[in-house]
């Protein structure tokens, strides 16, 4: 059995968003599920719009999501000599011919065709045929090179998403595969790359479907059968339009900065076009174990950030507390708060994570332990009264006398004050939370206080 080799081949012409990175996730998952190889190829032939900065962001985004590649990155601009050598081979074999039709002539031809309600296409003026007399070669014109598309018959392939696709060769004109300056074009370079890199499966967006029959012809002209194709439906934004930078899509790395877990983003993205029964929440290991090309969806999927936050919240609950502590320490650092990702911070994460959808929210909660709090005036007015004030004074004295600072000892002190003053738990616990934590609602107050340094609790209760 041939080893599975997939590829992710982005163009580095701007930041990469979730719709783009899904075209890396599925090839990665397929390669991993089959003990295969993922090749990273940078299609940078659009020299004016490509940048190394964009390449760096692609690699950074893949690294954050854990979509590790096995080979590459390979850059198309560094392979020009190889493309030109293959081009020369096709010219020699008669698959390619020079075309001297100018852009002006081509535009005029297309206008005539559209006026006649015909499909606009190159008409084969310069295509050599037996017995055909070609026009005289114009002086000083650098020709493009065109590929001789087979005439009659059709191109057929079994797409792993769309099923059987058949396109008549009569629908295809002769593809330009080299520009006047000799630079090869996209559809040609892709085929040479896929052959040289022994790609077995091409998993990409369905905006490439129209390129596929042309690429299949080039494969066969070079004596190779094409790979297996799987053309993924578009990812739509929340307005139902194709997700794009122009329509407000965010860079992948922005989700990291907004406190999403890589595991959760991978989980959510995987479900945007693939499913394993009704499973909504799963790990990366489960994705690799379950993934196959037979359960890729045929219809476009719509991105829903509310749903992604929910998926993230589920992964927060499952996440190892030590891992969360490291991520929260980073988020606190962005707020100018220095926190060490130690056992204490991990314990804080364990206590508060069920209330949070992102590590940003968790850092917001946990900042009460590292920075001064400012209780809202409305909370102070509502909860500090003639019943709670003396109870808080008495509690502070009991807490100051504790030899052991833990949840059990703090709980015993609170219950003793409640018993002595014959008040209800909320009459003490809520104002206690407001003064120490700056908010009226928290997890169990004894567990929350136990994670504070004792002197900070006493200091905040001193403000009575």
From TrEMBL:
Motif annotated as 'KMSKS' region, chain positions: 242-246
Main location per the UniProt record: cytoplasm
Gene transcribed to yield this protein: gltX
Organism, scientific name: Sphaerotilus natans subsp. natans DSM 6575
Protein known as: Glutamate--tRNA ligase
Enzyme Commission identifier(s): 6.1.1.17
Alphabetized GO MF terms: ATP binding; glutamate-tRNA ligase activity; tRNA binding; zinc ion binding
Keywords: Aminoacyl-tRNA synthetase, ATP-binding, Cytoplasm, Ligase, Nucleotide-binding, Protein biosynthesis
Subcellular location: Cytoplasm
Pfam families according to UniProt: Anticodon_2 (PF19269), tRNA-synt_1c (PF00749)
Similarity comment: family membership: Belongs to the class-I aminoacyl-tRNA synthetase family. Glutamate--tRNA ligase type 1 subfamily.
């Amino acid at each position: 059995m041939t080893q599975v080799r997939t590829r992710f081949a982005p163009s580095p012409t701007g930041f990469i968003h979730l719709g783009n990175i899904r075209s890396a996730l599925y090839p990665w998952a397929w390669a991993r599920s089959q003990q295969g190889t993922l090749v990273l190829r940078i299609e940078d032939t659009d020299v004016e719009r490509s940048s190394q900065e964009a390449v760096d962001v692609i690699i950074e985004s893949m690294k954050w999501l854990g979509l590790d590649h096995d080979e590459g990155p390979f850059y198309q601009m560094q392979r020009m000599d190889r493309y030109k050598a293959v081009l020369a081979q096709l010219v020699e074999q008669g698959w390619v011919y020079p075309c001297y039709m100018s852009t002006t002539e081509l535009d005029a031809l297309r206008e005539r065709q559209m006026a006649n309600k015909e499909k606009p296409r190159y008409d084969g003026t310069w295509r050599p045929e037996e017995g055909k007399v070609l026009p005289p070669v114009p002086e000083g014109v650098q020709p493009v090179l065109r590929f001789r598309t087979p005439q009659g018959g059709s191109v057929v392939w079994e797409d792993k998403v769309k099923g059987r696709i058949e396109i008549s060769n009569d629908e295809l004109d002769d593809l330009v595969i080299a520009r006047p300056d000799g630079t090869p074009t996209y559809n040609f370079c892709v085929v040479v790359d896929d052959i040289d890199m022994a790609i077995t499966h091409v998993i990409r967006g369905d905006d490439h479907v129209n390129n596929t029959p042309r690429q299949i012809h080039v494969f066969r002209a070079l004596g190779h059968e094409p790979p297996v194709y799987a053309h993924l439906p578009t990812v739509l934004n929340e307005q139902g339009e194709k997700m794009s930078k122009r329509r407000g899509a965010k860079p992948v790395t922005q989700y990291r900065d907004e406190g999403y877990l890589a595991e959760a983003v991978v989980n959510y993205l995987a479900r945007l076009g693939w499913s394993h029964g009704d499973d909504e929440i799963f790990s990366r290991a489960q994705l690799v174990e379950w993934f196959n090309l037979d359960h890729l969806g045929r219809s476009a999927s719509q991105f829903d950030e509310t749903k992604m936050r929910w998926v993230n919240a589920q992964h927060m609950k499952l996440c190892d507390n030590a891992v969360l502590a490291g991520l929260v320490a980073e988020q606190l650092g962005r707020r100018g708060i220095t926190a060490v990702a130690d056992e204490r911070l991990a314990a804080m994460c364990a206590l508060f994570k069920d209330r949070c959808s992102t590590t940003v929210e968790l850092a917001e909660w946990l900042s009460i332990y590292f920075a001064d709090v400012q209780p809202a005036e409305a909370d102070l007015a509502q909860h500090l009264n003639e019943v709670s004030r003396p109870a808080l004074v008495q509690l502070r004295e009991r807490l100051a006398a504790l030899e052991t600072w833990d949840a059990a000892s703090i709980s015993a002190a609170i219950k003793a004050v409640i018993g002595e003053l014959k008040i209800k738990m909320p009459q003490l616990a809520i104002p206690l939370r407001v003064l120490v934590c700056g908010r009226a609602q928290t997890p169990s107050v004894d567990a929350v206080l136990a994670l504070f340094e004792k002197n900070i609790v006493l200091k905040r209760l001193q403000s009575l």
